[in-house]
Design goal:
Length: 126
């Protein structure tokens, strides 16, 4: 999870760990990218508005590292893009602030299903 606001990081971490998810935290976009490069993660939650590297840039870099990565963008800015526009930017789901626990968990469930589908697709051999 990548967010520059400590209260949001703590809240999301608490919610996710309460539902038995392992959480790795980064405090900014570049830090999140570096953490992703060194580990294996089922999905990435990233804030949109962060100093330095925005959530859009994080999503694009994550997808460059792992095209099957599932990225959830969290924003209070009211992002309005259709599904194709999000995909072009490397984002699978958007959660708007303020969010509710139910909304977070439903989105996480959809994201994990999407990741499972990506992992189970057949590999093309040439």
């Amino acid at each position: 999870m990548i967010d520059d606001e400590e209260t949001i990081r703590e809240l999301l971490s608490s919610i996710l760990t309460r539902f038995d998810h392992d959480v790795t935290i980064a405090t900014d976009g570049m830090g999140g990218i570096k953490v992703f490069e060194t580990g294996r993660f089922d999905l990435v939650l990233t804030d949109l508005g962060m100093p330095g590297v925005s959530g859009w840039k994080v999503a694009q870099r994550i997808r460059a590292i792992d095209p099957d990565a599932v990225v959830i963008l969290i924003t209070g800015w009211g992002v309005e893009l259709d599904g194709n526009g999000l995909k072009e930017k490397g984002v699978d789901f958007v959660i708007s602030k303020p969010f509710r626990v139910k909304q977070i968990m439903e989105t996480i469930s959809k994201a994990l299903t999407l990741r499972d589908c990506a992992l189970s697709k057949p590999v093309e051999r040439k």
